[in-house]
Write a structure and sequence with these properties.
There is one protein chain. By secondary structure, the chain is of the alpha/beta class. The protein has 3 domains: 140 residues, Rossmann fold, CATH 3.40.50; 161 residues, Glycogen Phosphorylase B (Rossmann fold, 3-Layer(aba) Sandwich), CATH 3.40.50; 77 residues, no CATH class. 34% of the residues lie in helices and 13% in strands. The protein has 14 helices and 14 strands. Strand 4, helix 3 and strand 5 form a beta-alpha-beta unit.
């Protein structure tokens, strides 16, 4: 499991990717997997092994591309000597060094997949798949829809542990904005909406990169007043306190955000969300039940009032049922099994001589049939590549007409795939069928 270098896993405050990675590692470990975590800083998860490539995460350099490039090079060096079944990479630059890697690699795309990012992933998929398997995991169907031609392996929503978020039904008289001070996040729209709704607003979020500082000066500070509180970065405890007390959370994003982790964090606390219909919002919020989805910023003030009448318990139940870490880990397990099965099939090399009927005859001692001979019974289909992996379904070439479940393939099939190799389990025929 490869985490970005920017923060501890899990992070003390900001760091949604690192928070998701930490929960995924812990749940995979609880399900019996041996997980090696490669990251930075402290050993804080249940991973079997932690390899810190940075004694202290270079958090103050977030936005500078060089630390992530160095991190990718260091990760590649570690992976050269690591005995792993699958690599799961959550970084942006790391997959660039996957060329030549025999171990299947899954990439979770935590950012956009259009524009320059889309060009990057398209080029990456074509090059890496030539030598191994590089599969991409989407974190929402909305994200996947922006680049349907990419090598998507699955859609796995991010998740949280609802039990770690305090539920509170009685709310206080303020709304909350929780996110980066960035134009895409729409904090200025949140201030305008709260003021129009007659409620004070607390703004909590990171503001350290140049684009964030410029946005703060140009759009946020001119709007500050007695009804606005600029909280700054909220650590894990402060974030939970704010989310549980707010009567609603505003999420007026101005871009196609692939997944807003703060949405499920708010709802887990029983706090409904008022959001613009962008990105994955319609996948996460049940409109009229766990929040209100708006089509324009002008609708936000009225939506705040509507959201306050929603049932906090329904918000909590929605997250517990659909966005829990156990479900996330199970879906990643399915993705791992799929890429392992695909890798096994791709790495099988069938000897052309075996496919030649004359070679088969020579191996079995049978004579080559003449063109005039008529078969006494239904001919067996041509050899097909079959992979049995755990409880995976058998995968075969459909052109050979074999699409039966394993139990219908016959007693003479004794082939399994283990670690990408072909092994005969001693079927009655004594040979690989």
């Amino acid at each position: 499991m490869v985490a970005p270098p920017w923060f501890d896993v899990p992070p003390p405050a900001y760091g949604g990717v690192e928070a998701v990675v930490a929960d995924l590692v812990d749940d995979l470990a609880a399900r019996g997997h041996e997980v090696t975590l490669i990251g930075a800083g402290q050993d804080l998860t249940r991973a079997s092994r932690f390899i810190p490539l940075w004694p202290e995460p270079p958090s103050e350099r977030l936005g500078d591309p060089f630390p992530e490039v160095v991190h990718a090079a260091l990760v590649a060096e570690v992976l050269d000597d690591l005995d792993a079944d699958v690599v799961h990479d959550h970084t942006l630059a790391g997959p660039l060094l996957g060329r030549g890697r025999r171990v299947p690699t899954i990439i979770t795309v935590h950012g956009p997949v259009n524009g320059e990012e889309g060009e990057y992933y398209r080029a990456l998929g074509d090059s890496v798949r030539m030598v191994a398997i590089s599969e991409m995991v989407a974190i929402s169907e909305a994200q996947r829809a922006h680049a349907p031609g990419l090598s998507w392996a699955a859609t796995v929503h991010n998740a949280i542990r609802p039990s770690t978020f305090p539920f509170r039904a009685d709310k206080e008289e303020f709304v909350l904005f929780l996110g980066r001070m960035h134009p895409n996040k729409g904090a200025h729209l949140a201030i305008d909406a709260a003021r129009a709704a007659g409620l004070p607003i607390v703004l909590a979020g990171k503001c350290s990169e140049q684009v964030e500082l410029a946005y703060l000066e140009q759009e946020i500070k001119p709007r500050l007043g007695k009804d606005t509180e600029l909280f700054g970065v909220a650590d894990a405890a402060a974030k939970r306190d704010l989310l549980s007390r707010a009567c609603a959370m505003l999420f007026p994003i101005c871009w196609e955000e692939p997944f807003g982790l703060v949405l499920i964090e708010a709802m887990a606390c029983g706090t409904p969300v008022v959001a613009l219909r962008r990105g994955s919002v319609p996948e996460i919020i049940v409109n009229g039940v766990t929040g209100i989805i708006c089509d324009a910023p002008s609708q936000l003030p009225e939506a705040v009032g509507q959201a306050r009448r929603l049932d906090p318990a329904a918000c909590r139940a929605h997250v517990a049922a659909r966005f829990n870490t156990e479900l996330m880990a199970a879906r990643y397990e399915d993705a791992y099994r799929q890429v392992l099965a695909d890798a096994a099939l791709d790495h099988m090399v069938l000897d052309d001589a075996v496919l030649d009927s004359g070679a088969v005859s020579a191996m079995t001692g049978a004579s080559r049939p003449s063109p005039d001979d008529k078969p006494l019974a239904r001919q067996s289909p041509a050899p097909a590549r079959v992979a049995l992996l755990g409880r995976e379904s058998v995968q075969v070439d459909p052109h050979h007409g074999l699409a039966q479940p394993p139990r219908h393939l016959g007693d003479d099939v004794g082939v399994v795939v283990e670690g990408g190799g072909l092994h005969d389990r001693g079927g009655p025929g004594g040979g690989v069928t």
